[in-house]
Amino acid sequence: MAELTSEPVEERNRRWDEPFGDEPLDAETVARILALPNFANVSTTEFQAWLPLDKIIANDGRLRRYQRGEVIIRKGDYGNSLFIILEGGVLGLPNSIKSEKQSQAQKPRISWWRSIAQLLAKAKPPEYRPTRRRGRDTLGSQSRVPSGLGKIEISDVLRLPTTLALQAPQVFGELAALTGRQRTATFAATDNDTLLFELRWQGVRDIRTWSTPFRQRIDQLYRERGLVSRLRECPVFHHLDQRALDEIAKESLFETYGSFDWMHRFKKEKQADVSRVIEQETMICEQGSHVDGLLLINRGFARVTERVDYGEQAIDHLSVNDVFAACLHISVAISELRRRPTAGA
């Protein structure tokens, strides 16, 4: 009975109460997705009974259909999901490019009196979100949701030397799904009725946690496509040349600590007993232990404490791009929460 009220189960229940799509994917669609090479060697026996693989795919995934030229994701936007191409093709554009919607969004200059009138006018809601549909949808109707990011002329951008053409069953968008950071490229559909499977970050996290083959495959994509750029963003590495960054990337490890549902638990523990907050946090490294790596926080937060009498005293808090300890190897954490590395460096 304890398992039914545990924190991971509570987090799962809250998440699956609102499936990523209009409703969970049906069994036939889930079977089609699990048959993809991206899930090769991913065994259902590796997953916990309360978190089965097929339910992760069904509740944390959705199908999206795009027409030729429609923008799927845009460089610079924050993202939290990855995509797998099921049908059609996708074009990646590392350099920023304006879509038709962005070009049409250029607003003409308005008069001074018009500006005053707008300030005095009653504010309107900034955006509209349609009511969720709870009815049974077919595969086609569920996935025909326009991206709202505009369209680009594919024939024009195909001539650019930096474009990246992808076909089924290739993956894209994994960098933002792992790190919660901005998209590093714009992607648009190259064919009509391009069908994609989109998996939100919670699903990526859970499959990556329990399946070693999936974790190795996704981490390798991250290493090949985005790790060097990520290291260059960090102030401690920005002065290094390409050769040095490549060497660091080759020796890097990816580690995850703590809970992605940390805010909910923090509020609950704080209401009950403040002294339990630190006790519930995951230890990354302990004061007095041997130092063997430089920890770079890629996502989330960490608390640094030191021993005082019979307890722990917080002396610092770390966030994205902060580093801790001394380096014999580099450890790049892709976690929502990196917590309680006790002072020891």
Report on this structure.
With 345 residues, this protein is an alpha+beta fold. It folds into two domains: 2-97 and 136-225, Jelly Rolls (Sandwich), CATH 2.60.120.10; 233-333, no CATH class. Helix content is 32%, strand content 19%. It has helices at residues 7-16, 27-34, 53-60, 100-104, 112-120, 139-143, 154-157, 174-179, 201-210, 212-225, 227-233, 242-250, 262-272, 276-279; strands at residues 61-66, 71-73, 81-87, 89-93, 164-167, 171-172, 186-189, 194-200, 253-255, 294-297, 302-308, 311-318, 323-324, 330-333. The protein has a four-stranded antiparallel sheet with strand order 1-8-3-6. Strands 2-7-4-5 form a four-stranded antiparallel sheet, with no helix packed on it. Strands 9-14-10-13 form a four-stranded mixed sheet, with no helix packed on it. It is globular.
